[in-house]
């Protein structure tokens, strides 16, 4: 029996998913074949170890979450720099909404907590400050809620067309201008539970759909399906096929705020976090919202796509190598109705000064929003 | 008796990784352990680390079928944390002051030996997972850690159906197993 098939059988055996007959057959097989039995014993041991590992890992995550909550409360404290560095994605979640949700959750737990403290008599000293806090929280929530409604009303007035109240914002850019395909990160698309829209510099939103999402390479390809969208001429950058060069000076265009922002940096390492070869490392300042931004070099070639940054390290940003853009396009080509996707590049940025280059490129960089 | 019965159910809930129970144990015991660490030349970070590790020891014990708490939970946690911190201090040639007030202490040597073994197993698996590469790492994490159903994994990773994803998962498992035993048998 092949090792993978056996693994399948062993896992079903452990989970008790085998039928009676299969179980009898399986144990018979083990009895007759000591070598196979040895492998089965090994696999059972291994799968139990894996289960144990997963369990412990999940418990550790809960511990960290709890510690973070209690740190916010002041019960636990750590010095600011002790946290191990980790990689965070660079989309921007809308704080206003989150703040409302968080303070509502806060009120609920405060109510429950004060109920508990009222019931348990030995903690009566806690009641007063908590109730005070509750009023403050409530006021704040109301204020924030009012503001959010106001903002939304303002936006709604100025825009008769499609308008989605977004929960997050990130960046994406055009890759096939004649068929309206855009590139962004998989983690951005996965953040959209209900709706996904593309928004241009003039705050016009267009309906879009995810065509391809690959969490393993963090690549996603979208297509604008909105009839109101006017096609752009083919875009002026080409895509670099070779590996990123150390020291290559690059610039990025993205949406860390509701306006396009230009940033500069250089290629500082050939691989990503923990030597992940899907990515390379940039030294630059990147902010939330720049996930999916194009990274362009002096020759006007696209050399990468911003994905994440390392916390606890200054200016360490990871970008996806263009190889994975090419392989994503190849995958999309195989899909029904998307066979014609093509990178519509024209290398017309060579020798153009930076300011004029940006003026040509910025039309092709969009906000990706959703909820 | 009530207290013990109550603590017994706490331990069952810890085995299930219950959020509220974790938080409750933090609230009830963190100060005590923090005071112990800090009054013995530790920092706030040391205290937080020691408490986390103590909680992991408790979790591992809670998973054992024959585990019975023969003292107050508070005493158990204090004894574990104290022993863990003592060890840390010895490693860095610092000393534990003997002036402990009147905290009760129980013997926990066996518990910690078990914990060290668990810790070793954990890091072997973690290293193996780190070496396995993509898409295997994400795929196995999606299934075993995030507990996603196979159908969703197939969709997320671009497999045409759940069976293909499953085959890929078993291939990854076989590779992971090899990496795991390479390390495990050499230790």
What does this molecule look like?
The complex is a heterodimer of chains A (371) and B (187). Chain A has 371 residues and is α+β, with helices and mostly antiparallel strands. Chain A is built from 8 helices and 15 strands. Chain A is globular, with a radius of gyration of 26 Å. The longest helix of chain B is centred in the C-terminal third of the chain and has 25 residues, at 162-186. In chain B, helix 2 packs across helix 4. Chain B is built from 8 helices and no strands. Chain B folds into 2 domains: 1-106, Rna Polymerase Sigma Factor, Chain: A (Orthogonal Bundle), CATH 1.10.1740; 128-187, no CATH class. Classes of the chains: A alpha+beta (371), B mainly alpha (187). The A-B interface holds A 3-5, 7-8, 42-43, 46-47, 49-60, 62-67, 69-70, 75-79, 82, 190, 212-217, 274, 276, 278, 331 and B 17, 19, 22-23, 26-27, 30, 43-45, 48, 51-52, 55-56, 59-60, 63, 118, 121-122, 125-126, 130, 134-135, 138-139, 144-145, 156-158, 166-167, 170-171, 173-174, 176-177, 180-181.
């Amino acid at each position: 029996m092949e090792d993978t098939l056996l693994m399948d059988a062993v896992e079903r055996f452990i989970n008790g998913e085998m039928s009676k007959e299969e179980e009898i057959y399986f144990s018979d097989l083990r009895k007759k074949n000591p070598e196979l039995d040895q492998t089965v014993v090994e696999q059972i041991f291994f799968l139990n170890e894996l289960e144990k590992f997963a369990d412990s890992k999940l418990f550790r995550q809960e511990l960290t979450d709890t510690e973070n909550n209690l740190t916010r409360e002041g019960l636990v404290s750590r010095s600011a720099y002790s946290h191990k560095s980790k990689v965070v994605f660079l989309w921007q979640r809308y704080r206003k909404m989150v703040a409302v949700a968080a303070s509502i959750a806060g009120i609920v737990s405060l109510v429950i907590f004060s109920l508990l403290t009222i019931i348990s008599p030995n903690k009566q000293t806690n009641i007063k400050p908590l109730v005070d806090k509750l009023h403050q929280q409530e006021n704040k929530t109301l204020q924030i809620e009012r503001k959010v409604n106001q903002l939304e009303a303002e936006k709604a007035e100025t825009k008769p067309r499609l308008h989605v109240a977004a929960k997050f914002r990130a960046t994406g850019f055009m890759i096939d201008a004649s068929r309206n395909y855009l590139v962004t990160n998989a983690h951005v698309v996965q953040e959209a539970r209900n709706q996904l829209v593309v928004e241009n510099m003039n705050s016009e939103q267009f309906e879009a759909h995810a065509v391809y999402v690959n969490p393993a390479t963090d690549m996603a390809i979208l297509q604008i399906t909105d009839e109101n969208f006017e096609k752009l001429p083919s875009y002026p950058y080409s895509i670099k096929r070779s590996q990123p060069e150390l020291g290559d000076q690059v610039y990025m265009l993205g949406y860390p705020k509701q306006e396009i922002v230009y940033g500069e940096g250089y290629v500082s390492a050939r691989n990503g976090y923990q030597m992940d070869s899907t990515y390379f490392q940039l030294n630059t300042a990147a902010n939330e919202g720049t996930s999916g931004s194009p990274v362009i070099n002096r020759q006007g070639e696209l050399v990468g796509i911003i994905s994440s940054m390392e916390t606890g390290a200054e200016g360490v940003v990871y970008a996806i190598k263009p190889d994975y853009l090419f392989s994503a396009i190849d995958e999309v080509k195989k899909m029904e109705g998307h066979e014609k996707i093509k990178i519509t590049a024209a290398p017309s940025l060579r020798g153009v000064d930076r300011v004029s280059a940006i003026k040509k490129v910025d039309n092709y960089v969009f906000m990706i929003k959703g909820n | 008796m009530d207290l013990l019965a109550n603590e017994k159910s706490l331990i069952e809930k810890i085995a299930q990784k219950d959020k509220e129970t974790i938080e409750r144990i933090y609230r009830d015991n963190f100060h005590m352990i923090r005071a112990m660490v800090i009054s013995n030349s530790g920092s706030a970070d040391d205290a937080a680390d020691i408490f986390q590790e103590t909680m992991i020891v408790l979790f591992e014990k809670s998973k054992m079928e024959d585990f019975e708490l023969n003292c107050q939970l508070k005493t158990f946690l204090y004894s574990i944390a104290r022993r863990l911190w003592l060890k840390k201090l010895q490693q860095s040639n610092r000393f534990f002051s003997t002036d402990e007030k009147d905290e009760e202490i129980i013997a926990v040597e066996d518990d910690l030996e078990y914990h060290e073994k668990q810790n070793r197993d954990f890091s072997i698996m973690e290293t193996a997972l780190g070496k396995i590469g993509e898409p295997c790492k994400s795929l196995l994490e999606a299934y075993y850690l995030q507990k996603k159903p196979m159908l969703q994994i197939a969709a997320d990773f671009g497999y045409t159906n759940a069976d293909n994803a499953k085959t890929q998962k078993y291939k990854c498992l076989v590779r992971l197993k090899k990496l795991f035993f390479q390390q495990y048998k050499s230790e």
